[in-house]
Amino acid sequence: MGPFATPGDSSRDRLLKPAAESADIRGNMRNRDREPQTKIRATCPACGEVELTPPDVELHVCTAAERSYYAFVCPDCFELVTKPADQRVIRLLVSGGVPTRFWDPPAELLESHAGPTLTYDDLLDLHLLLDEPDWWSRLVAACH
Question: Distance between CA atoms of 97 and 71, rounded to whole angstroms?
Fold first, then answer.
């Protein structure tokens, strides 16, 4: 009897099909034969439209609605893709059986920021300033 022969089977030629296994976005092994056949179409920035199943996608719903997103690993290029998820996308993914995680953003994410964006040049200037022995007095003087 071969490794996939049916116990008690009188025909030695009859074999069972081994389970088809693959990994989901979290790296967990799963059996595609036992999952619902819901298909989700998403777009990878590099590959274009791809077809996924619910375990391939993670939905992260934030208490600050504009911060909600979904993520998947592209089945063609294996890159992690994240996309914003508005209420319509959330409803579609939940109705398709996509696992959902709820999260609260850290307070820093919701703070308002005034002034220009910090650039690489600004960061390099600060690094050079910190090498100077009088860096603190120069920093205080620049702020006044």
Answer: 14
**What DSSP assignment string belongs to 83-109?**
EE--HHHHHHHHHTT--EEEE---HHH
Q: Give the residue from 13, 38, 26 showing the smallest Cα distance to 94.
A: 38
Q: With a threshold of 0.70, does the pTM exceed it?
A: no
> Where do the structural domains in the chain lie, given as residue ranges?
38-109
Q: Along the 144 residues of the chain, how does pLDDT read in single tens digits?
A: 434 344 444 444 444 344 444 555 566 655 555 555 789 999 999 999 999 999 999 999 999 989 999 999 999 999 999 999 999 999 999 999 999 999 999 998 888 888 888 899 999 998 998 999 998 998 888 887
